[in-house]
Amino acid sequence: MAIKSSIIIPVFLYIFFMGVVFPKTSFPENKPLIIVCNSRDIVHYSTALKGFEDLLKERGINCEISQYNLQEKKKGTASTISEIKSQKPELVLTFGSSATRSIKAAIKTPVVFSMVLDPVSSGFVKSLKSSGNNLTGVSMDISVHEQFKKIKAVIPRVKTIGVIYDPGESDGIVKEAKRVSKEMGLKLIAGPVQSEKEVPRVLEDLEDKIDVLWAIPDATVFTPQSTRFILLFTLRKKLPFMGLSPPFVKAGALFALYGDYYEMGRQAGEAAVELLKGKSPSDLPIVFPQKSCLVINSRVAEIIGAIIPNQILEQADKIF
Prior knowledge:
- It is a single chain.
- This protein is elongated.
- Helix 9 links the parallel strand 9 (241-243) and strand 10 (255-259).
- The N and C termini lie far apart (83 Å).
- It has helices spanning 5-21, 43-58, 77-86, 97-106, 144-154, 167-183, 199-206, 224-236, 246-251, 261-276, 298-304, 310-315, and strands at 33-38, 64-69, 91-95, 111-116, 135-139, 160-165, 187-192, 212-214, 241-243, 255-259, 292-296, 318-319.
- The strands form 2 sheets. Strands 7-6-8-9-10-11-12 form a 7-stranded mixed beta sheet, sandwiched between helices.
- The chain is α/β, with parallel strands linked by helices.
- It contains 12 helices and 12 strands.
Protein backbone atom coordinates (compact mmCIF):
# COMPACT_ATOMS: atom_id res chain seq x y z
CA MET A 1 0.00 0.00 0.00
CA ALA A 2 1.42 3.43 -0.95
CA ILE A 3 2.18 5.86 1.83
CA LYS A 4 0.81 9.35 1.29
CA SER A 5 3.37 12.09 0.79
CA SER A 6 1.45 14.20 3.26
CA ILE A 7 2.57 11.76 5.98
CA ILE A 8 6.18 11.37 4.79
CA ILE A 9 6.96 15.10 4.68
CA PRO A 10 5.93 15.89 8.29
CA VAL A 11 7.84 12.86 9.56
CA PHE A 12 10.93 13.89 7.60
CA LEU A 13 10.71 17.42 8.87
CA TYR A 14 10.33 16.15 12.46
CA ILE A 15 13.44 13.97 12.18
CA PHE A 16 15.42 16.80 10.58
CA PHE A 17 14.27 19.30 13.18
CA MET A 18 15.14 17.01 16.08
CA GLY A 19 18.57 16.34 14.59
CA VAL A 20 19.38 20.03 14.23
CA VAL A 21 17.88 21.41 17.40
CA PHE A 22 18.69 18.41 19.60
CA PRO A 23 21.78 16.85 18.01
CA LYS A 24 22.96 13.48 19.29
CA THR A 25 25.18 13.99 22.29
CA SER A 26 28.62 12.37 22.09
CA PHE A 27 29.86 11.54 25.58
CA PRO A 28 33.63 11.27 25.95
CA GLU A 29 34.79 7.77 26.78
CA ASN A 30 35.69 7.38 30.45
CA LYS A 31 39.40 6.59 30.39
CA PRO A 32 40.72 5.82 33.87
CA LEU A 33 44.15 7.25 34.67
CA ILE A 34 46.70 4.72 35.85
CA ILE A 35 50.00 6.01 37.19
CA VAL A 36 53.00 3.71 36.80
CA CYS A 37 55.75 4.35 39.34
CA ASN A 38 59.14 2.65 38.81
CA SER A 39 61.82 2.30 41.48
CA ARG A 40 64.32 2.85 38.67
CA ASP A 41 64.62 2.51 34.92
CA ILE A 42 65.36 -1.13 34.06
CA VAL A 43 64.29 -3.35 31.19
CA HIS A 44 62.51 -5.87 33.44
CA TYR A 45 60.01 -3.22 34.50
CA SER A 46 59.33 -2.35 30.86
CA THR A 47 58.73 -6.02 30.08
CA ALA A 48 56.28 -6.35 32.98
CA LEU A 49 54.51 -3.14 31.94
CA LYS A 50 54.02 -4.56 28.44
CA GLY A 51 52.30 -7.58 29.99
CA PHE A 52 50.14 -5.27 32.10
CA GLU A 53 49.08 -3.16 29.11
CA ASP A 54 48.39 -6.22 26.95
CA LEU A 55 46.13 -7.70 29.61
CA LEU A 56 44.09 -4.51 29.97
CA LYS A 57 43.74 -4.28 26.19
CA GLU A 58 42.52 -7.88 26.01
CA ARG A 59 39.94 -7.10 28.70
CA GLY A 60 38.68 -4.16 26.68
CA ILE A 61 39.84 -1.53 29.15
CA ASN A 62 40.90 1.69 27.47
CA CYS A 63 42.94 3.70 29.97
CA GLU A 64 45.46 6.48 30.11
CA ILE A 65 48.86 5.47 31.50
CA SER A 66 51.41 7.94 32.83
CA GLN A 67 54.87 6.81 33.97
CA TYR A 68 57.18 8.13 36.68
CA ASN A 69 60.66 7.04 37.69
CA LEU A 70 61.70 7.69 41.30
CA GLN A 71 65.36 7.84 40.32
CA GLU A 72 64.82 10.57 37.77
CA LYS A 73 67.62 13.08 38.37
CA LYS A 74 65.58 16.24 37.70
CA LYS A 75 63.00 15.45 40.37
CA GLY A 76 63.26 14.30 43.94
CA THR A 77 61.09 11.50 45.33
CA ALA A 78 58.92 13.91 47.35
CA SER A 79 58.29 16.09 44.29
CA THR A 80 57.41 13.07 42.15
CA ILE A 81 54.99 11.68 44.74
CA SER A 82 53.36 15.10 45.10
CA GLU A 83 52.84 15.31 41.34
CA ILE A 84 51.35 11.81 41.26
CA LYS A 85 48.88 12.69 44.03
CA SER A 86 47.82 15.87 42.27
CA GLN A 87 46.69 13.90 39.22
CA LYS A 88 44.22 11.86 41.30
CA PRO A 89 44.71 8.58 39.42
CA GLU A 90 42.19 5.76 39.49
CA LEU A 91 44.97 3.45 40.65
CA VAL A 92 48.76 3.29 40.88
CA LEU A 93 50.97 0.47 39.57
CA THR A 94 54.37 0.20 41.25
CA PHE A 95 57.43 -1.73 40.12
CA GLY A 96 60.04 -2.53 42.76
CA SER A 97 60.21 -2.25 46.55
CA SER A 98 61.46 1.34 46.62
CA ALA A 99 58.55 2.69 44.59
CA THR A 100 56.04 0.56 46.49
CA ARG A 101 57.34 1.79 49.84
CA SER A 102 57.21 5.45 48.79
CA ILE A 103 53.73 5.19 47.29
CA LYS A 104 52.36 3.23 50.27
CA ALA A 105 53.47 5.93 52.68
CA ALA A 106 51.89 8.78 50.73
CA ILE A 107 48.87 7.63 48.73
CA LYS A 108 45.48 6.20 49.69
CA THR A 109 44.57 5.42 46.08
CA PRO A 110 44.36 1.67 45.28
CA VAL A 111 47.85 0.35 44.53
CA VAL A 112 48.92 -2.74 42.58
CA PHE A 113 52.55 -3.65 43.20
CA SER A 114 54.79 -5.92 41.15
CA MET A 115 58.44 -6.98 41.10
CA VAL A 116 58.80 -7.04 44.90
CA LEU A 117 60.12 -9.80 47.15
CA ASP A 118 58.41 -11.03 50.31
CA PRO A 119 55.76 -8.29 50.64
CA VAL A 120 54.81 -9.39 54.16
CA SER A 121 58.32 -9.13 55.64
CA SER A 122 58.83 -5.93 53.66
CA GLY A 123 55.88 -4.44 55.53
CA PHE A 124 53.76 -3.78 52.46
CA VAL A 125 50.88 -6.07 53.46
CA LYS A 126 49.68 -7.73 56.66
CA SER A 127 49.23 -11.15 55.09
CA LEU A 128 49.15 -12.88 51.72
CA LYS A 129 45.40 -13.44 52.01
CA SER A 130 44.52 -9.82 52.69
CA SER A 131 46.73 -6.75 52.66
CA GLY A 132 44.68 -4.92 55.25
CA ASN A 133 45.31 -1.67 53.37
CA ASN A 134 45.05 -0.11 49.90
CA LEU A 135 47.64 -2.46 48.33
CA THR A 136 47.50 -5.73 46.47
CA GLY A 137 49.79 -7.22 43.86
CA VAL A 138 52.26 -9.80 42.66
CA SER A 139 55.18 -11.11 44.71
CA MET A 140 58.33 -12.17 42.86
CA ASP A 141 58.89 -15.05 45.29
CA ILE A 142 59.01 -18.56 43.89
CA SER A 143 57.65 -21.18 46.30
CA VAL A 144 60.24 -23.02 48.40
CA HIS A 145 58.98 -26.35 47.07
CA GLU A 146 59.52 -25.26 43.46
CA GLN A 147 62.99 -23.93 44.26
CA PHE A 148 64.06 -27.14 46.01
CA LYS A 149 62.60 -29.19 43.19
CA LYS A 150 64.75 -27.24 40.74
CA ILE A 151 67.83 -27.66 42.95
CA LYS A 152 67.36 -31.45 42.80
CA ALA A 153 66.96 -31.28 39.02
CA VAL A 154 70.08 -29.16 38.45
CA ILE A 155 72.20 -31.00 41.04
CA PRO A 156 70.81 -34.57 41.24
CA ARG A 157 73.31 -35.63 43.94
CA VAL A 158 72.13 -32.98 46.41
CA LYS A 159 71.27 -34.15 49.92
CA THR A 160 71.97 -31.12 52.08
CA ILE A 161 71.08 -27.49 51.37
CA GLY A 162 72.65 -24.58 53.21
CA VAL A 163 71.22 -21.11 53.77
CA ILE A 164 72.46 -17.99 55.55
CA TYR A 165 69.80 -15.78 57.09
CA ASP A 166 68.97 -13.12 59.63
CA PRO A 167 66.37 -14.59 62.05
CA GLY A 168 64.93 -11.12 62.58
CA GLU A 169 64.20 -10.82 58.87
CA SER A 170 63.79 -14.28 57.35
CA ASP A 171 62.82 -16.66 60.15
CA GLY A 172 59.46 -17.45 58.53
CA ILE A 173 61.03 -18.44 55.21
CA VAL A 174 63.60 -20.69 56.88
CA LYS A 175 60.95 -22.44 58.99
CA GLU A 176 58.94 -23.12 55.85
CA ALA A 177 62.08 -24.34 54.07
CA LYS A 178 62.86 -26.79 56.89
CA ARG A 179 59.36 -28.24 56.62
CA VAL A 180 59.55 -28.53 52.83
CA SER A 181 63.06 -30.02 52.84
CA LYS A 182 61.96 -32.74 55.25
CA GLU A 183 59.00 -33.62 53.02
CA MET A 184 61.33 -33.85 50.01
CA GLY A 185 63.92 -36.04 51.74
CA LEU A 186 66.45 -33.23 51.96
CA LYS A 187 68.28 -31.69 54.90
CA LEU A 188 68.44 -27.94 55.43
CA ILE A 189 71.25 -26.43 57.49
CA ALA A 190 70.63 -22.80 58.35
CA GLY A 191 73.37 -20.42 59.45
CA PRO A 192 72.00 -17.40 61.37
CA VAL A 193 73.68 -14.00 61.25
CA GLN A 194 72.84 -10.63 62.77
CA SER A 195 75.03 -8.54 60.49
CA GLU A 196 76.80 -8.80 57.16
CA LYS A 197 80.13 -9.01 58.99
CA GLU A 198 79.17 -12.48 60.22
CA VAL A 199 78.50 -13.84 56.74
CA PRO A 200 82.10 -14.97 55.94
CA ARG A 201 82.45 -16.88 59.22
CA VAL A 202 79.07 -18.61 58.87
CA LEU A 203 79.69 -19.51 55.22
CA GLU A 204 83.05 -21.03 56.07
CA ASP A 205 81.37 -23.06 58.80
CA LEU A 206 78.70 -24.33 56.38
CA GLU A 207 81.06 -25.17 53.53
CA ASP A 208 81.90 -28.79 54.45
CA LYS A 209 78.38 -29.60 55.60
CA ILE A 210 76.32 -28.74 52.51
CA ASP A 211 76.02 -29.73 48.85
CA VAL A 212 74.58 -26.42 47.65
CA LEU A 213 74.14 -22.90 49.00
CA TRP A 214 70.62 -21.50 48.60
CA ALA A 215 69.98 -17.75 48.58
CA ILE A 216 66.90 -16.10 50.03
CA PRO A 217 66.06 -12.37 49.77
CA ASP A 218 67.60 -11.31 53.07
CA ALA A 219 68.86 -7.72 53.16
CA THR A 220 71.22 -8.43 56.07
CA VAL A 221 72.97 -11.25 54.22
CA PHE A 222 73.07 -9.81 50.71
CA THR A 223 74.79 -6.45 50.77
CA PRO A 224 77.07 -5.54 47.84
CA GLN A 225 80.16 -6.48 49.89
CA SER A 226 78.85 -9.76 51.29
CA THR A 227 77.39 -10.81 47.93
CA ARG A 228 80.79 -10.33 46.33
CA PHE A 229 82.38 -12.45 49.04
CA ILE A 230 79.79 -15.24 48.67
CA LEU A 231 80.23 -15.39 44.89
CA LEU A 232 84.02 -15.55 45.11
CA PHE A 233 83.97 -18.04 47.98
CA THR A 234 81.59 -20.48 46.29
CA LEU A 235 83.60 -20.36 43.08
CA ARG A 236 86.88 -20.92 44.88
CA LYS A 237 85.47 -23.76 46.97
CA LYS A 238 83.58 -25.24 43.99
CA LEU A 239 80.31 -25.01 45.92
CA PRO A 240 77.13 -24.77 43.81
CA PHE A 241 75.28 -21.55 44.59
CA MET A 242 71.63 -20.90 43.72
CA GLY A 243 71.35 -17.12 43.39
CA LEU A 244 68.34 -14.83 43.56
CA SER A 245 68.14 -13.59 39.98
CA PRO A 246 69.85 -13.50 36.55
CA PRO A 247 72.35 -10.80 37.69
CA PHE A 248 73.54 -13.20 40.44
CA VAL A 249 74.08 -15.92 37.85
CA LYS A 250 75.85 -13.59 35.46
CA ALA A 251 78.15 -12.55 38.33
CA GLY A 252 79.07 -16.12 39.31
CA ALA A 253 76.18 -18.10 40.82
CA LEU A 254 75.54 -21.48 39.19
CA PHE A 255 71.83 -20.92 38.56
CA ALA A 256 68.69 -19.11 39.64
CA LEU A 257 64.94 -19.45 39.34
CA TYR A 258 62.90 -16.31 38.81
CA GLY A 259 59.41 -15.24 37.79
CA ASP A 260 58.62 -14.44 34.16
CA TYR A 261 58.49 -10.64 34.06
CA TYR A 262 55.92 -10.37 31.26
CA GLU A 263 53.58 -12.84 32.95
CA MET A 264 53.90 -11.04 36.30
CA GLY A 265 52.85 -7.87 34.50
CA ARG A 266 49.77 -9.67 33.19
CA GLN A 267 48.97 -10.87 36.70
CA ALA A 268 49.20 -7.28 37.94
CA GLY A 269 46.83 -6.40 35.11
CA GLU A 270 44.31 -8.96 36.35
CA ALA A 271 44.37 -7.31 39.77
CA ALA A 272 43.96 -3.87 38.19
CA VAL A 273 40.88 -5.05 36.28
CA GLU A 274 39.25 -6.16 39.53
CA LEU A 275 40.05 -2.84 41.21
CA LEU A 276 38.66 -0.85 38.29
CA LYS A 277 35.46 -2.87 38.65
CA GLY A 278 35.16 -1.59 42.19
CA LYS A 279 36.75 -4.27 44.34
CA SER A 280 38.82 -3.28 47.36
CA PRO A 281 42.57 -4.07 47.31
CA SER A 282 42.26 -5.86 50.65
CA ASP A 283 39.77 -8.27 49.04
CA LEU A 284 42.36 -9.51 46.56
CA PRO A 285 45.01 -11.97 47.81
CA ILE A 286 48.67 -11.49 46.94
CA VAL A 287 49.62 -13.77 44.05
CA PHE A 288 52.87 -15.43 43.02
CA PRO A 289 54.47 -15.90 39.58
CA GLN A 290 52.46 -18.28 37.41
CA LYS A 291 55.53 -18.99 35.31
CA SER A 292 59.12 -19.37 36.49
CA CYS A 293 62.30 -19.19 34.41
CA LEU A 294 65.63 -20.96 34.85
CA VAL A 295 68.96 -19.30 34.14
CA ILE A 296 72.27 -21.21 34.26
CA ASN A 297 75.91 -20.17 34.06
CA SER A 298 77.63 -22.91 32.04
CA ARG A 299 81.07 -21.41 32.64
CA VAL A 300 80.57 -21.61 36.39
CA ALA A 301 79.45 -25.22 35.99
CA GLU A 302 82.78 -26.00 34.32
CA ILE A 303 84.78 -24.18 36.99
CA ILE A 304 83.17 -25.96 39.93
CA GLY A 305 82.85 -29.32 38.17
CA ALA A 306 79.04 -29.45 38.25
CA ILE A 307 77.53 -31.78 35.67
CA ILE A 308 74.09 -30.46 34.82
CA PRO A 309 71.79 -32.95 33.05
CA ASN A 310 71.32 -32.18 29.36
CA GLN A 311 67.56 -32.23 29.81
CA ILE A 312 67.82 -29.35 32.30
CA LEU A 313 70.15 -27.38 30.04
CA GLU A 314 67.62 -27.75 27.22
CA GLN A 315 64.86 -26.47 29.50
CA ALA A 316 66.83 -23.41 30.64
CA ASP A 317 65.38 -20.08 29.57
CA LYS A 318 68.82 -18.47 29.53
CA ILE A 319 72.39 -19.76 29.67
CA PHE A 320 75.40 -17.57 30.31
